[in-house]
């Protein structure tokens, strides 16, 4: 049986850069939700974190990209959670458990914040960045799935599984957002993932062969 894949170890400089990017992204999202995208300036985001606009531009090309960076950050956390799953765990179960574990840690956002974000999607620049972020997210998780499944895995199947996880997340959020005040996000997300598991037998079988003793 193969051993668990080791996660890359970041040096101090890389960790500082990652922390700065995350801080800028979090500030951009928070300020956009508070003020609206049209009232948000790059200078405001940089000032919130205590850096210069030039430093901001080292990490993001626009305020829209910074606002949408939370999407990629969330999926990167799922990737690390997947890498940490036990090596003997079947692939699909590992993906589900990693996604659910991270969703539990992140928690559901405030409904009002989600509504404001949907309203901001009418901005063409933000919508374009959102699409790019989702494309990056699919690649990030697909790479982690391929890494875990082994060399016999079909990259197209890995992308399909990543797309299922993303799709389940979006549908769960929409269902939760439009449901009654007592509805919970996480159970809906888990149910959708488990129902989708029947659609991925090929990749699961490939992973099982790769990890067989």
TrEMBL record:
Q: Which UniProt keyword terms apply here?
A: DNA-binding, Transcription, Transcription regulation
Q: Where is the HTH tetR-type domain?
A: 18-78
Coiled-coil spans are none
Q: Listed GO molecular functions?
A: DNA-binding transcription factor activity; transcription cis-regulatory region binding
Give the superkingdom in one word. Bacteria
Q: Which SUPFAM superfamilies match?
A: Homeodomain-like
Q: Which residues bind DNA?
A: 41-60
Q: What is this protein called?
A: TetR family transcriptional regulator
